[in-house]
Amino acid sequence: MSAKVVVLGGGVAGMSAAQELAERGFEVAVYEMRRLPGGKARSMPVPGSGTEGRKDLPGEHGFRFFPRFYKHIVDTMERIPYGDNEQGVAGNLVEGTRLGLARVDGPPVEFLTEFPHSIEDVKDAFKSLFDNNLGLTDEEIRLYMERIWQVMTSSDDRRQQQYQNIPWWSFINADEQSAQFRRVFAGMTRILVAAKAREANTSTVGAVGAQIMLDMVVPGGSADRLLDGPTNEVWLHPWLEYLQSLGVDYHLEAKVERIHCENGVISGATITENGQTCEVQGDYYVAAFPVEVMAQFVTDEMLHADPTLDGIRQLAEDVDWMNGIQFYLKRDVPIIHGHMIYMDSPWALTSVSQKQFWPDFDLADYGDGMVQGVLSVDISDWEAPGVLFGKPAKRCTREEVMQEVWTQLKQSLNVNGAVVLEDDNVHSWFLDEDVHLPNPDGVAVNLEPLLVNKVYTWNLRPQAYTAIPNLFLASDYVKTNTDLATMEGANEAARRAVNAIIERSGLDVHKCKVWEMYQFPLLTPYRIHDESRFKKALPWDGKIFSPIG
């Protein structure tokens, strides 16, 4: 008989765990509280927007972004069937060829890419990314690249034990640099899953930033990949169908009320579904909730069995908002063939013009048939005052958020006489349904915030396995090589949870592959040298390994 695994939560982590388990012969049941699968990755139909038999317009929690360094989630996608595409739904990933910086004092800047032939070429290529009349001095560019180089050539131990506890702001000496330096370099971390440079740790920001920059200058494709259609249609619905074809018992609108821990083991979970409350049991349990949700399920009984789970409660305080708003346009406006970063926007906006990447989807089949373009925008800073109403996004009404975002976009795009965005081109808009703005008590709520990798939090993060022998954790707060609250991190955590279940069960099935991340193979000699120095408590010196000494 196969072992039964109960997966609590049906977002990317829960669906990833279910797929890996079902493909290995486990009996799997998934319980997801929302009406749609996928969690933060899902599309959301704009209620009531479809008329005369058309589909509702597609809304998003935030636009999808699949950097080239993603390995785990793409490998999973390749095994999800999609028509006759040999790559499965991974074949629906298309490349953006540009990454732009929009600014209020000049036209948007596009990042350059070059082919590197040597270490010096890599450094020069990195420099070229910022040599775009951004008002930076050669010394400032050199300082930033030296810091990126330091992270890339540092050993894993130094990153984990030293850089995890250094704020990125301090690492790049931002207080001692010009306002323009802080504008370009320190501010860009706000785009990285809502991270703030003064709080986010250097290990995460430096490694991820370096990897994305390297992917932009190494041949073999763009660093910027997107889906070629609405998320649900080209990924999540085919994924759910595949899971069900494997025998996964997937429950939607099934809310987990409580996880029961008795005598040091999980004895079951209370679920409310279709107005009925019941108890579900399995041999193993995978908690695939976001950190702020999982914190509510950590009981005293669990802490008695595994005191380290208290770190989850502490991590639940380290979340921030990053949510999407879509503008549906009467005329398509392909601003740039990829993502645009609005470096002067107080709300840390990023955007993508979706229609250019959706060649097989006619927007006339959605809404009232009049929409021709979709400008999808992420808001990463909900606490800074806006330019229109002088209030942070958390204190605005939904209508005010829309007006404020549109104004900030125009300030960065309609410059030097250019008119990119026009008010009369807006057909309608949709703000993420997870955002509930001020109620009569003045409290704003975000049902799905993001974990931010702050300093001194690595040791609070749990492994995918616990001291409770039948409880496993699959979420982006788990310790992973990805080390970032993303779909990639959630998928890697799910793989680690499944591998731990395989070990505990003793079943003779192959484990999930887990990749190393941010290794920069070309720089291995440097990293070997730094590993030796770190073990001797010596600082990084950026030299290359020499077997002669």
Summarize the structure.
With about 550 residues, the chain is an alpha+beta fold.
Indicate the overall shape: globular
* Number of continuous helical runs: 15
Percentage of residues assigned to helices:
25-40%
Strand order of the largest sheet: 7-6-16-17-18-15-19
Strand content: 15-25%
Q: List segments where confidence is low: pLDDT < 50 over at least 5 consecutive residues.
A: 113-117
Biggest sheet: strands, sense, closure? 7 strands, mixed
Please provide the count of β strands.
23
Give the overall average pLDDT: 91
Overview features:
19% strand; 5-stranded parallel beta sheet; 15 helices; 7-stranded mixed beta sheet; alpha+beta; single chain; globular; 549 residues
Characterization of the model:
The chain starts with a strand and ends in a 14-residue tail after the last helix. A hairpin with a 2-residue loop joins strand 11 (265-273) and strand 12 (276-280). Residues 113-117 have low confidence and may be disordered. It is built from 15 helices and 23 strands. With 549 residues, the chain is of the alpha+beta class. Helix 1 packs parallel to helix 9 and helix 1 (12-23) runs parallel beside helix 14. The strands form seven sheets. A seven-stranded mixed beta sheet has the order 7-6-16-17-18-15-19, covered by helices on one side. Helices cover 29% and strands 19% of the residues.
List the helices and strands and how they pair.
Layout: E1 4-8, H1 12-23, E2 27-31, E3 43-45, E4 58-60, H2 72-78, E5 93-96, E6 98-103, E7 106-110, H3 119-130, H4 138-152, H5 156-161, H6 168-171, H7 179-186, H8 202-217, E8 224-227, H9 231-245, E9 249-251, E10 254-262, E11 265-273, E12 276-280, E13 284-287, H10 291-297, H11 300-305, H12 310-315, E14 319-320, E15 323-329, E16 338-342, E17 349-353, E18 373-379, H13 398-413, E19 426-431, E20 435-436, E21 445-446, E22 450-451, E23 471-473, H14 487-505, H15 524-535
Parallel strand pairs: 1-2, 1-13, 2-9, 6-16, 13-23
Antiparallel strand pairs: 3-4, 5-8, 6-7, 10-11, 11-12, 14-22, 15-18, 15-19, 16-17, 17-18, 20-21
